[in-house]
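User: Working on a comparison across species. This one is Molybdopterin molybdenumtransferase from Candidatus Raskinella chloraquaticus. Can you predict its structure so I can line it up against the others?
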Amino acid sequence: MLSVEEARRRILAGVNRLPAEITSIDDAQGRVLADPLLARLSQPPFVAAAMDGYAIRAMDAAQDASFRVIGQSAAGSPFAGSLGERQAVRIFTGAIVPAGADKVIPQEFASREGDDVRFPALPSSPFVRALGLDFSLGDVVLEAGHQLDAAAIGLAAAADHRQLAIVRRPRIAILATGDEIVPPGAIRADGQIHSSSLYAVRAACLAAGAEVINLGIARDERELLAQRFAAAIAIPADVMITLGGASVGDHDLVQETFARAGGELGFWRISMRPGKPLIFGTAGSLRLLGLPGNPVSSFVCCWLFVLPLIRALLGLASEPKQCLARLSADLPANDEREDYLRARLVSDPHGTITATAFSRQDSSLQSVLAGANGLIRRPPHAPAARAGEMCTVLPLST
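Assistant: Here's the predicted structure for Molybdopterin molybdenumtransferase from Candidatus Raskinella chloraquaticus:
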């Protein structure tokens, strides 16, 4: 059986960033820039006041000197003239500093009577924002590969970009398989359960930035599975995820049907728990990831293999995030399979993380998974660990 690292290496081998598409800045939240973003203007595009107050010539500034107010400059409504000796313009934050002026005295430093203003005290700061203080015309304000959050979108708008070249979302087709599963809300026959992995994996893929095509549920019939494989190839999907049918039982038909559809199997077992029966294969540009049917197994495999693949297709760093934590309780020695224990991670005010493994680790326990915010990674043949020792954890956050 392959190690987790070797399995991920094979899944990511030859993966290239997807091509670019143009989208409105209104729809860019969470998307990834395909090209460097250059400023189309300088910001601010003029010398601007940093405070409400009075614009004067710095050379005229003297404590309690009298200045004649000759007009005002407001944001969007600048003063048209220029300043002479001992003249001032009432000015507001963000407004253009008039020609001749190079200092703004905040209004709390001013004493005004009619058109005359004095400054009993003088601040040292000029309270003036220089042309291009933030960025200049032609500057690279965001690098290619930047994932756009609210601040980056605001920066793109300030740099005068209404449309952006972003990486196309990976198209992920998801298919649940099995005679025993029905959609939530459907009437169950004896022995049936509601499909849950389909929705958990779909949600994880959406959060990672993918476009998800739900192929529904297929019974364990070769013809039905073949139709869904053909549909995924025709979309065309970048990745197809199957849930269930990944082992070698009489009703596990994913490997066989994928091969009949022209797919080439890469591997189908990895040395990990939960998630041993994981299928990987390719059919042209389509990558197949056949996840186990147990809901916790499918989620952990999604976190370790599907999400890194989505990030690689987006041109992002693909390695799952890991960090060190302190164990809150003893752990027994591990066997030959790499283990991922569902755990609760708590960070103290000093940044030290404490990891507490749940006492129940069965791969069917979704209530435990929902209560976990991390996975404790236990290498193969890891010796018993004592409370207080450090361990490697994977935070379950995108």
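For your comparison, note: The mean pLDDT is 94.

User: Helpful, thanks.
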